[in-house]
Amino acid sequence: MSRPLISVIIPTHSSTTLDIAVKSICKQTYKNLEIIIVGDNPKEETERLAKECVARDSRIKYYRLPHDDPKRFNKRGRNINAGYSARNYGFEKVTGEWITFQDADDASLLNRIEVQYKLALQYNATHLCVDWQQFNPEYLEKALNVQKILKEHSDAIILPEGIITLAKNTKGIIIPILGPLNKYIPFEWKRLRIINKLFFKSLAPYPGTGNSPLFKRSVVEKVRFRALPNRIWPSFTGRGADRDFNFQVAETFKNSYVFKLPLYLWRQNSQNVEYVGYNKYLI
């Protein structure tokens, strides 16, 4: 039985590690992939790296976002775009039955996509996230012994009901009342000490790694990444595009799963405390 095509969208702006990220996808145990690199106002060196990747593997395509986001930086100079518009542009280019992402600054263990796909089939999931551990170059050629983890950790799965409850408990209590009017309220007002609890009932993150979900292509017919004024689940700093997207998908389709499997390698200064010692599961 042939496996469906899975599209991997990789937004990139100024990453010098793009080559590492792309190679970690090209070497995935799941081979039927199309890899869509989207240059998000890319630096010259970043675009050169992207084109080198295209020349190396026929599964890779490169597109440049046709516009720059004039509101990329907020008043504090913080980048609140974080690739959200590039991901939406990538949605227009994909042809796969399933979609996932890879950040250009990070990498994935060799079986990340295959594990997500198999679990999505097993649980009939529309949308499925795994988890992250600290990036380590020694892990780039490694896979994760998922069967052993699931056997030894009975709490490794978060079911749709739990995620829907979390979505409800993190949504600002005034959001259902405001409806579409929410986007007209400046984000800086939403952060004000007196009223922020109306818009940020809880700052709990989306469980798992929100930047690399696997989901059916049909999801994008109803859900896209939203600009900051439209986000219902932003971060308090003004980013949170991933958090908003995943909670939005979970609430819309009511069929999202999270597995506590650290298959994503995130460039952080310290290890994810949940997975200290999990290097014993690498194979």
Topology:
Layout: E1 6-12, H1 18-26, E2 33-39, H2 44-56, E3 60-64, H3 84-91, E4 98-101, E5 107-108, H4 112-123, E6 127-134, H5 146-152, E7 157-158, H6 160-170, H7 175-178, H8 187-190, H9 196-199, E8 214-216, H10 241-253, E9 256-266
Parallel strand pairs: 1-2, 1-4, 2-3, 6-9
Antiparallel strand pairs: 4-8, 5-9, 6-8, 7-9
Helix pairs in contact: 1-2, 6-10
**What's the CATH topology label?**
Spore Coat Polysaccharide Biosynthesis Protein SpsA, Chain A
CATH class: Alpha Beta
The averaged pLDDT comes out at: 93
Helix content: 25-40%
Give the amount of beta strand, in percent: 15-25%
Biggest β-sheet, characterized?
Answer: 9 strands, mixed
Q: From the alpha carbons, calculate the radius of gyration and give it in angstroms.
A: 18 Å
Multimeric state of these chains?
Answer: single chain
Overall CATH architecture: Alpha-Beta Complex
Could you name the ranges where pLDDT drops below 50 across 5 or more consecutive residues?
Answer: none
Order of helices and strands: EHEHEHEEHEHEHHHHEHE
Q: Number of DSSP strands?
A: 9
Provide the domain count. Answer: 1
CATH superfamily: Spore Coat Polysaccharide Biosynthesis Protein SpsA, Chain A
Give the N-to-C terminal Cα separation.
Answer: 27 Å
- Class by SSE composition: alpha/beta
Helical region count? 10
Principal-axis shape equals globular
Overall description:
By secondary structure, the protein is an alpha/beta fold. The protein has one domain: Spore Coat Polysaccharide Biosynthesis Protein SpsA, Chain A (Alpha-Beta Complex), CATH 3.90.550.10. 30% of the residues lie in helices and 17% in strands. The chain contains 10 helices and 9 strands. Strands 1, 2, 3, 4, 5, 6, 7, 8 and 9 form a 9-stranded mixed beta sheet that branches. Strand 2, helix 2 (44-56) and strand 3 form a beta-alpha-beta unit. Helix 6 crosses helix 10. The model has no long low-confidence stretch (mean pLDDT 93).
